[in-house]
Amino acid sequence: MSEIKPTDTAATNAGEENDWAASKYFSDSLKTKKPKPPKPQNAVTIAVSSRTLFNMVEERKIYEEEGVEKYMAHMNQQKHENEPLMPGVAFPLVKALMTVNSRLRQLYPDSEELFDIVLMTNNHAQVGVRLINSINHYDLTIERFCMTGGQRPIGYLKAYMTNLYLSKDGEKVTEAIKEGIAAATMFTSGDVENQLSDTQLKVAFDGDAVLFSDESEIIVKQCGLDMFFEHEQEFENIPLKQGPLKCFLEALGKLQRKFYAKNERMTCPIRTYLVTTLRSWGLEIDEALFLAGAPKGPLLQKIQPHIFFDDQMFHIEGAKELGTIAAHVPYGIGQKYHKGELIEQTVKDVKDKK
């Protein structure tokens, strides 16, 4: 799983320090009012794909129907270079991360324990002008760009010490999780659009197979609730193994504690929620909501999070329908089920009826 960045600066080798110094010198020479990015080892790094940050439906259609060369030609046309892309599903989240950073800089002017937002895209560098122009148009504090030219992003995500990777490509997300990087596939909300807070970052998590391993969910799916409750009583004092996003939650908690240290617990601009049907296992989280099998959508509509993480598409779809920005974590036994039915068995039943 992805880990919180080490704070022992002595572990950073001289080569990395030299590279950082050269990069900082170049950054300082640029005429920009944007704050300088923190060192990767001190930051909570959020990597977002271009298709999550911006609405690129039209551009994606050109890519899929006419090929990469037509797509690059479209993006490179001068008339499009200065035409800002419309905000995408991750845009409100990025704005909320910037709000938190602004508050942290006010309290800790010299600290580098901040969110660092990286644009991670498989676009070629030649088409990056429009992306960068769009970022500047919206005054987004994104100073790091990784344009892989069609290569898989995994190696780059590790090099950037990524705490969370958000994409619209489920295969890339699955690959990232297998490599121990917290990741999720983002989905655009439905016709309803919730009014999101512009002063507080709200992040909602499912429990099992997201913050924890899927061991309890395996028992529910395979043996039913009665066996699950027996198992919970027998092993109530044994913590569950961590899931793919546990370290991201811990990274959020680390930043929250910086506000608590300044006596700003009640005005902390980060708020976390556990929205689950099972248990919490003593997580450091602001609000825990146990639904006992009830739909999550209505409650999420009340919370209005900037992002909600769940491992089951059934819950993702329910959240989307009521306007919640949802992100699928493709991990654990839940990937074999849909609406409580085993996907393989459903396919077999359909074939048997033919």
TrEMBL record:
* A Pfam family annotated for this UniProt entry: 5-nucleotidase
What name is this protein filed under?
5'-nucleotidase, cytosolic IB b
Q: Which organism is it from?
A: Hucho hucho (huchen)
What InterPro entries does its record include?
A: 5-nucleotidase
Q: Tell me a GO cellular component.
A: cytosol
Signal peptide location in the record? none
Per the record, the domain of life is Eukaryota
The molecular function terms of the Gene Ontology recorded here are: 5'-nucleotidase activity; magnesium ion binding; nucleotide binding
Q: Name one GO biological process term.
A: adenosine metabolic process
Q: Which PANTHER family match?
A: CYTOSOLIC 5'-NUCLEOTIDASE 1 FAMILY MEMBER, CYTOSOLIC 5'-NUCLEOTIDASE 1B
